[in-house]
Amino acid sequence: MLGTLVNSASIIVGSALGFFLFKGRINDRTNESIVKGTALAIFLIGLKNANAGENMLLMIFSIVIGTYIGEWIHIEAKMEQLGKFIESKFKGDSNISKAFVTSSLLYCVGSMAILGALEGGLKGQHDILFAKSVLDGIISIMFTSTLGIGVFVLSNTCFILSGCHCHWSRFLKRCPYRSCYSQHEWCWWTPYHCT
């Protein structure tokens, strides 16, 4: 849970810096360049972790199935509806919906968010979420300076989702009926530990 707290705090601090210190001071070209640089860092981290992965088929199927489910339940449209609802509560700032949706897609449903929270819950390692925290802090400065306070509103959502992933993985770690992968053998929903 430490990684989740650090990540949420970095979004809050970055949003506050972006809103109070950098709002209107960072031009679009610089903003775009910094966001592209952080996107490259995220890509390199993902590439490194993909090369370390042992089961590429599982990764491919997970991406395809996750994309299908997201399209099937219209998750992006629902995020936009939630953003518009939040925007209606904050009169005067028309960018809240855009900031909320853009930020939520970046902060909450990315692979680093999910894998980092799972790794924190299962192994107690927070390296992925610590790296994500630095990136999220920088990106939240950029987004808040241009899109406004909607990025700050998202920090609560990020904390809740990441915390749920972390606690869910802790439950799976203790659950005697879990699936595990060890020595190239699958043990599906068995009370026995794979050895």
How does this structure look, described?
With 195 residues, the protein is mostly helical. The protein contains 8 helices and 2 strands. It has helices at 2-20, 28-52, 56-72, 75-89, 96-107, 111-123, 127-147, 150-174, and strands at residues 178-182, 185-190.
Layout of helices and strands:
Layout: H1 2-20, H2 28-52, H3 56-72, H4 75-89, H5 96-107, H6 111-123, H7 127-147, H8 150-174, E1 178-182, E2 185-190
Antiparallel strand pairs: 1-2
Strands side by side in the biggest sheet: 1-2
End-to-end distance: 28 Å
Tally of DSSP helical segments: 8
Main structural class: mainly alpha
Q: Describe the largest sheet.
A: 2 strands, antiparallel
Rg (C-alpha, Å): 18 Å
Molecular shape:
globular
- Taking pLDDT < 50 over at least 5 consecutive residues as the criterion, the unreliable ranges are 181-195
Strand content: 5-15%
Number of strands: 2
The average pLDDT is 76
Q: How many structurally independent domains?
A: 1
* Helix/strand order: HHHHHHHHEE
Percentage of helical residues? Answer: over 70%
